Amino acid sequence: MIQASWKASTGWATPELKPYGPLSLMPTASVLHYATECFEGLKVFRGYDGKLRVFRPDRNAARLRMSSERISLPVFEPSQIEKLIIALLSVDGTKWLPKERAGSFLYIRPTVIGTAPQLGVGAPKEALLYIIITYMPRLDAPPGGMRLHTSPEDMVRAWVGGFGYAKVGANYGPSLLATADARVRGFHQILWLYGQQGECTEAGASNFFVIWKRKDGKKEIITAPLDDKLILDGVTRRSCLELFRERLNGEYEITERKYTIDEVIEADAEGRILESFAAGTAYFICPISQIHHRGKNIDIPMGPEATPGEVTSKVKGWLGDIIYGREQHKWGVIIPEKE
Amino acid sequence: MIQASWKASTGWATPELKPYGPLSLMPTASVLHYATECFEGLKVFRGYDGKLRVFRPDRNAARLRMSSERISLPVFEPSQIEKLIIALLSVDGTKWLPKERAGSFLYIRPTVIGTAPQLGVGAPKEALLYIIITYMPRLDAPPGGMRLHTSPEDMVRAWVGGFGYAKVGANYGPSLLATADARVRGFHQILWLYGQQGECTEAGASNFFVIWKRKDGKKEIITAPLDDKLILDGVTRRSCLELFRERLNGEYEITERKYTIDEVIEADAEGRILESFAAGTAYFICPISQIHHRGKNIDIPMGPEATPGEVTSKVKGWLGDIIYGREQHKWGVIIPEKE
Predict the structure, then answer these.
(1) pLDDT for the residue numbered A339
(2) Average pLDDT, stretch A89-104?
(3) What number is the ipTM of this complex?
């Protein structure tokens, strides 16, 4: 793991490469009381061309800086974080993801926490940045597709004026209760609705896409917009939109706008829903087969034998080609390895 | 400090009394990523009668259980927490708050954190409850009274359907940025407004009271209600309301309802504002002298020579008498001490 400590008085210390092991924190550490914490998630992939790649780490580094500032933790040059990630992977990537494991990945978790031992409610005067690497199971193909349960009426994930756009711990802990309830009922994740109209925002901790026929007959790929800062500016979300605009333009309208669960229900009733998927680093591109909303099931079409639908398959294929080196693309950043 | 660990498989271990020192947490511990954390704050007072007291610990214990459940941490019998607090104070209270320090207090911080080393977003399978005791400065009498700045238009502390009523870390970290901005501008705390109408909710991390003359000439003590779960059910808030209803009934209307910053501004313009104070464990009863809202100052009357006003003084006196044993009251729970 990589660690770098920070003090308000002296700034950042030189980052150190250390063996993975426990952190020592005072019981009064800011992070344990006031959730002064933020993180990122990205993956490193062993390509079919033998190369090790990370996907758009510049995006994660920039978002970590933004999240850190939002939660009153210290800021840094995003390019420095990118360098640290690459330095760590140059050492550990080859070891844990050897060349014969083409098509495999590891998960990278950069984290910033407030370590200052201070119970006074204020910005922490000491912090720690660390980067760890772990295994993570594949989550992108639950048998039969991902089933979503809409959020309970009395529970909201994020709100306008809040911090739903930042990858801070405070967005996750409070959502666990609803997710656990949904799991007990046999669903995988919550579809978080917002406001009186029930705007569709996120699916679990992933972004949410619907592909449908509009009333005018035009095919459309739709996802919630970023402008009111309710949802996370997902790297996978952004990459999907960029690829759709580049490769499906003309065939589909690509739309970022607010849309409600009632629009989804209406489209379902009129047989206009084509596909739906969740997009994120952990779940990659995960086809959605069902949405349950207040006692009613919306069944979403999938491909033959519960494979992903056409658009879902295409974007999953394109991204897979980029991350595993079947397509050379600027988004796949190659990690230098010693021979 | 007292520590008790919990595992999903085996439940709570026997609590242990340990010397104060650092905690060892894995870098993947749930609390460091997903803000699975909650806490309480209460004080122990050395009375003028020589006795050691805590104030309504049953309330804090019950709230800790509620917060713990809300943030997907394990639950427990509140009475057990109360017993642990009293056990810890029976040992450390005498030592750190000897009999000659009448009129002094220490701060007690029970905390529950998710310790499970798991990056998967889910309820932590391991947790730690600990109780620590620290010194805390007196915060209830900033020279000239507390000055509040209303929350920025693009920042909301809590929302209906959220978790503003629970004492979870996720309510604190995200509010630090606005508080730091207010401090730079010369204010002590944020007055958090909610919704289009600008409902007055909390002052910093304290509850907020206004005493005014209503348009019908009747004197009123007003504070935000608990019913939409936006604000913390403060023990001091609740105690103030109970004492007001018992001791000022007839003289003042005691009202819990939504009221807006525009109502406060109007009352100010019509010379109807009498007093205002913040109520909480950390700030105790703290008179408010000014509210700044979008470029405009509302000056709040105080007593002569910047002392608290009449109602503020009265309730501060009543509570002070209870906690320091000048009035024997069931809220002041006596800690048994060895001679």
Answers:
(1) 67
(2) 94
(3) 0.96
Does pLDDT of B332 surpass 90?
Answer: yes
* C-alpha distance from residue A244 to each of A212, A333, B25, B121, B197 (Å): 14, 21, 43, 29, 41
- pLDDT tier, A163 (very low <50, low <70, confident <90, very high otherwise): very high
- Per DSSP (E only), the strands in chain A are 2-7, 11-12, 16-17, 23-25, 37-39, 42-46, 52-55, 105-114, 126-134, 146-150, 189-194, 199-203, 206-213, 219-223, 253-256, 273-280, 284-293, 296-299, 332-334
Contacts of B136 in chain A (CB under 8 A): 119
Residues of B in contact with A42 (CB under 8 A): none
Q: Look at residue A178 in the predicted model and tell me its pLDDT.
A: 95
Asked if B176 lies within 8 A of A136 by C-beta distance, the reply is no
- Strands B146-150 and B189-194, bridge-based pairing: parallel
| A173:B176 CB<8 A | no
Q: Is the pLDDT of residue A212 over 80?
A: yes
Pairing of strands A199-203, A206-213: antiparallel
Question: Which pLDDT score is estimated for A154?
Answer: 87
Chain A environment of B36 (Cβ under 8 Å): 173, 176
Query: Cβ of B122 and A179 within 8 Å?
Result: yes
Q: How far is A166 from chain B (nearest CA, A)?
A: 10
What is the pTM for the complete model shown? 0.96
> Distance between CA B265 and CA B296 in Å, rounded?
9
Show residues of chain B in contact with A136, CB under 8 Å.
Answer: 119
Facing A132 at nearest CB: one of B24, B28, B154: B28
Judged by a CB distance cut-off of 8 A, whether residue B239 touches chain A is no
Contact B28 A154 (CB under 8 A): no
d(C-alpha A223, C-alpha A201), whole Å: 8
Question: What whole-number percentage of chain B has pLDDT above 70?
Answer: 100
Q: Which of residues 24-43 of A touch B (CB under 8 A)?
A: 24-28, 31-37, 39
Largest CA distance in chain A: 63
Is residue A145 within 8 A of residue A312, CB to CB? The reply is no
pLDDT over 80 at B109, yes or no: yes
Calculate mean pLDDT across residues B258-283: 98
Residue A122 makes CB contacts below 8 A (sequence gap 6+) with: B176, B179, B180
